[in-house]
């Protein structure tokens, strides 16, 4: 299950940034490696909310700096829903 969350997030990040999915690894930094700015960060967060039916708090967005952070956040939000 964790792997599919990661794949979906990589797909979202790829759509927003224009980087190829193969270039986006769990430890890539969104801001330093993938040229994400604050607007793209919000786009990614909104796409994650829609895809996983979760709510990402605004104060969480700047803390999501890697794919791994995003995956961990989504997994923790999904576990809270159950």
Word description of this protein:
This protein is an all-alpha fold and 82 residues long. The chain has one domain (2-81): Orthogonal Bundle (Non-ribosomal Peptide Synthetase Peptidyl Carrier Protein, Chain A), CATH 1.10.1200.10. 61% of the residues lie in helices and 0% in strands. The protein contains four helices and no strands. The protein has helices at 2-17, 30-33, 38-52, 67-81. α1 (2-17) packs across α3 and α1 (2-17) packs across α4. The mean pLDDT is 93.
Helix/strand layout:
Blueprint: H1 2-17, H2 30-33, H3 38-52, H4 67-81
Helix pairs in contact: 1-3, 1-4
Return the domain count: 1
Rg, nearest Å: 11 Å
Sheet with the most strands, sense and barrel status: none
Count the beta strands: 0
SSE topology string: HHHH
Count, helices: 4
| Inertia-based shape | globular
**Which fold name corresponds to the CATH topology?**
Non-ribosomal Peptide Synthetase Peptidyl Carrier Protein, Chain A
Given as residue ranges, the uncertain stretches (5+ residues, pLDDT < 50) are: none
Between the first and last Cα atoms, what is the distance in angstroms? 15 Å
State which percent range the strand residues make up. Answer: under 5%
Q: Which architecture name does CATH use?
A: Orthogonal Bundle
Mean pLDDT: 93
Determine the fraction of residues in helical runs and give it as a percent range: 55-70%
The CATH homologous superfamily is termed: ACP-like
| Structural class computed from helices and strand pairing | mainly alpha
For the record, what CATH class applies?
Answer: Mainly Alpha
């Amino acid at each position: 299950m964790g792997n599919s969350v990661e794949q979906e997030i990589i797909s979202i990040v790829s759509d927003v940034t224009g980087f190829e999915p193969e270039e986006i690894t769990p430890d890539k930094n969104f801001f330093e490696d993938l040229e994400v700015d604050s607007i793209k960060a919000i786009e990614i967060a909104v796409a994650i909310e829609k895809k996983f039916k979760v709510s990402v708090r605004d104060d969480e967005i700047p803390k999501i700096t890697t794919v791994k952070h995003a995956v961990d956040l989504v997994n923790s939000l999904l576990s809270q829903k159950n």
